[in-house]
Write a structure and sequence with these properties.
The chain has 393 residues and is mainly β. The chain has 4 helices and 28 strands. The protein folds into 3 domains: 42-146, Immunoglobulin-like (Sandwich); 152-272, Immunoglobulin-like, CATH 2.60.40; 283-388, Immunoglobulins (Immunoglobulin-like, Sandwich), CATH 2.60.40.10.
Length: 393
């Protein structure tokens, strides 16, 4: 009997020792939660807001998330980041005392964003007593933006005085060959409550014809009634332009609009020479533009100094090479050829001068050279380097 009793006591002791051995060690820094009290820095009243259906014409929808500091020390919102640029946050900037409330405000931009949406705000908070303790909270906003009725500002977005233009007061013909004629139309809308006289087009070059289109045919002048439209037609004759490369014109629509009588109207095109459908044999007989190099590095220069270089051009073809146009990318760069027409085998130089006044750091400028070489009518030259800033005065 005594033998069994001693054995039982020994086993009980081993069991208690094993339990003590396996119990986890408590960190001295670990916080113990009081009964019924949150261990989070704050307690939000809600973390999600549903705007429901909102009108696009209301432009913005705003809600505020409030929270309470549940700790015994102040806390501070470090920052708030949104999942989309369409949402603008605002929040309590000062530290929140214990037991007091703070807020995070979310403003959603509904304009131009019809349809359902779900966006989030990530809020980062920090304890003022222990700055190493931070917590992150995610807030959600959602809803549906009801599209607004479309109006003149949608169909004719460009507004100049009392007139609107759709799609814009600009016509781009893109690339157009010298054997082509093209036309495009733009709509003008009278956004005022008075008639506006369209008196005509000023500064139109000979290769551009502009008229107002009516049911009776094209006219040079027109009286546009309030809230009414008229189409303006632009016809472009690339051959008559007698120009090459990117061509830019500013026309003026003359009106009696008291707000802005002359409306600028822009016409652009990239004119390329038409060589026809050439065979390989014909191309072999054509002029050929060949540069010794198309890039020049002037190294380092001081601000205000000029860099100069001569690019050498040779006609390696069998017919005369004509330099149609030379156009630098910047007014700070000048370029001029010694000759504009080269016989087969003949060479010339294109002298390029770059003025670094007012510039600093790495810089690169291009010079577009257009010739009658059908294989490669456009060649870009590049001059680049580094500009050291001018010393402070």
């Amino acid at each position: 009997m005594w033998k069994h009793l001693i054995t039982g006591i020994a086993l009980s002791g081993m069991f208690l020792w094993a339990q003590k051995k396996s119990a986890p060690a408590r960190s001295e820094k670990a916080e113990t939660a009081e009964p019924g009290k949150s261990t989070s820095l704050v307690q939000f009243a809600k973390t999600e807001h549903d705007f429901g259906k909102i009108k696009e014409e209301d432009k913005v929808a705003t809600t505020r998330f409030t929270f309470k500091n549940t700790q015994k020390h102040p806390i501070k919102i470090v920052d708030v980041k949104t999942s989309c640029g369409c949402t603008s946050p605002n929040w309590s900037r000062d530290p929140i005392p214990p037991g007091k409330e703070g807020y995070v405000e979310a403003q959603y931009s509904a304009w131009g964003r019809p349809g359902a949406f779900v966006k989030t705000l990530t809020v980062r908070m920090r304890s003022e007593a222990d700055t190493t303790r931070e917590e992150t909270y995610t807030l959600t906003i959602k809803g549906e933006v009801l599209p607004r009725p479309k109006g003149p500002e949608d169909f004719y977005p460009t507004k100049l005085g009392s007139l609107r233009f759709g799609p814009a007061n600009h016509v781009s013909f893109g690339t157009i060959k010298t054997n082509e004629k093209k036309s495009q139309r733009v709509t003008i809308y009278n956004d005022s409550d008075k008639p506006i006289e369209l008196k005509g087009i000023a500064d139109a070059p000979k290769h551009i014809e502009v008229t107002f289109v009516t049911p009776q045919g094209p006219v040079a002048t027109y009286q546009l009634k309030p809230k009414d439209t008229i189409q303006i037609e632009v016809k472009y004759d690339a051959n008559a332009a007698n120009d090459y490369g990117f061509v830019y014109q500013v026309l003026k629509i003359q009106t009696n609009d008291a707000t802005e009588p002359e409306k600028p109207f822009y016409v652009t095109a990239n004119i390329e020479e038409y060589f026809g459908e050439l065979t390989e044999a014909q191309l072999a007989e054509a002029p050929r533009a060949q540069f010794d190099r198309t890039e020049y590095d002037y190294g380092k220069i001081k601000a205000g100094e000029k860099a100069e270089y001569d690019f050498r051009l040779t006609n390696t073809g069998k017919k005369p090479l004509i330099i149609r146009k030379i156009k630098p990318s910047c007014g700070c760069t000048a370029a001029a050829p010694s000759k504009s027409e080269l016989k087969p085998g003949e060479s010339t130089t294109i002298h390029v001068t770059f003025d670094s006044t007012g510039r600093s750091g790495k810089d690169s400028k291009s010079i577009t050279v257009i010739t009658n070489d059908p294989r490669q009518p456009t060649i870009n030259l590049v001059i680049h380097g580094e500009i050291e800033p001018a010393p402070a005065k």
